[in-house]
Amino acid sequence: MKKILSLTTVLAICGSFLYAQNAVDLKVQLDNASGKISPHMWGIFFEDINLGADGGIYAELVKNRSFEFDHPMMGWKRLENVPEGTFLIINDSRRKGNARSLKIHKPTDFKTGLQNEGFRGMGVKKGDGYEFSLLYRQASPGIRIKVELLNEQDQVIGTAALPLSQGANWQTGSVTFTSAETSPKGKLNIWFEGAGDVEVDMLSLFPQDTWKNRPKGLRKDMVQILADMEPDFVRFPGGCIVEGRDLATRFQWKKTVGPIEERELIINRWNTEFSHRLTPDYFQTFGLGFYEYFLLSEDIGAEPVPILNCGMACQFNTGEVVPLDELDEYIQDALDLIEFANGDIHTPWGKLRAEMGHPAPFNLKMLGVGNENWGPQYIERLAIFQKILQEKHPEIQIIASSGTDPNGERFDYLDEKLRDMKVDIIDEHYYRPPAWFLSGADRYDDYDRNGPKIFAGEYASHTTRPQGPGRSTWEAALSEAAFLTGLERNGDVVTMASYAPLFGHVDGWQWSPDLIWVDNLNVYGTPSYHVQKLYSLNKGTDIIPVKLGDQNVVGQDSLYASAVYDADTKELIVKFVNYNEQSVEANFQLDTKKKIKGNATKITLANADLNVVNSLEEPLRIKPQTEQVNYKGKAIKDTFPPYSFTVIKIPVQ
Description:
By secondary structure, this protein is of the alpha+beta class. Among the domains are: 44-60 and 211-364 and 375-393 and 431-539, TIM Barrel, CATH 3.20.20; 76-207, Jelly Rolls (Sandwich), CATH 2.60.120. Helices cover 17% and strands 32% of the residues. It has ten helices and 36 strands. Helix 4 (328-342) packs across helix 5 (348-355). Residues 1-22 form the signal peptide. Its EC number is 3.2.1.55. Belongs to the glycosyl hydrolase 51 family.
């Protein structure tokens, strides 16, 4: 779908020299709504990149807890000099999903132990409780365990003892203790005391203070910052990890459900993807699996939006495809996932969901088939999925990929084919510089209202700043705010939107910019986070046209605007971007027979320096400023600061 940009839109890219010397007059057509806003407009995109899951939101502190990494002892260090044969890696193929374990052989009571380094250290807090647990078996009694939590100076800040019982079968042991200090980069010592033989696995350390206090659950502050957005949906598990570098390492949801100790670890595709950020210790343990993704979505009031492999590996890597006559396994995965999410507890997969603790269905409504796939090979596989899913589950909307780019030959081919197929939702992705976002605010103004809906599934403005947390600038966020006015104005066509990637660990990132940055103890939202949060918290139900003359406000004088009416709160919500280096005075004339009542609320994000970022040291350098204002009658006259994004909420009777 090619577009010719208007002259005003093109000139808006050039910057603030078009600053309007006189007040800008805008008309808000409150009594002439142009459509309905999607009920799931603003959401979040989750992928295990940048230590987003393991080492991030999944609160496990021990790295390589089950010795399943390519190097079984990665993350571990042997303590003390011990005889050869004291430690032995056992590979037992009879154990489902988790074949390896560690055998400790101590014919006499010499001192020996292991130390785990965690994920760039272990973040622990003073006064908080921690649970150490493991699986073990020992044929005869003799070995007991002592655990020690260490700070960066190798001083013991927490300790506990754990006796081990006798038994030929695997059993669970656990003990809790309290940290005496806060340490962002702690370590864990595990001492094996006494004499004898013992086999151990799933050596684990979790904070007790997790999200909703669930044992072995999610990191509380990282979930909370998502819940604060009140997202409409959660897309999971990605992203390129859905595809895998090859089909053997694709994401297979069935291996991520059931007992934790039986989930089959695989390498994370971001392990070696970027030569400048090699991460050889990056694997997926799937402690955060599809059940947990569904539960997270439910917890924060969001629709679950899973994406499944369509029989194609990443086309930038191997480009492997499964033969069409062997696609049944992949389609069955989709059918079984719908049963897992929505099925009765007497169905096989519904029964598993109930056994995991959730008898009620998760009410799945949408399902993605493929991620950033393209070409005829994608279309022919998608068509098979579509036919079977429409026959067996017409209630499920199918999300299809438009490839990696928002324009060009690849995009044009897919856009035409997907519209011919009448897919429900087309997933468009755009990682582009700020100028692209500024010039694209009118992208969807002329899209077919009767065709497929659009999912802006991955978007982020990429500046030329150096990689890392410093790339998440106000310039990027403000250009996104301008672009999002176009998504909101076309909320009857653009049914979903989510920034990507979601999380970045300051010590373990592979990709930037990111919406939210963390270290082992702290979390903060970037300027882009605050922009999308303002859209998400101020969504409305009806699209209200905002006009400059007879045109939409899409860059004229570097200004952008959209508006919605919220029928539930009875508020008009105006969003206004001033992408100028000077203040701008604007007059909004409310074209309505309704009565305007009471004070309005004005929320502003602004900074005259486009290179400003939030950081661990200054997490709220860019943050919303809220004030109550009293506008007279049906004319809103106000001055908007340089480089600002403003939300105005006006009560309407």
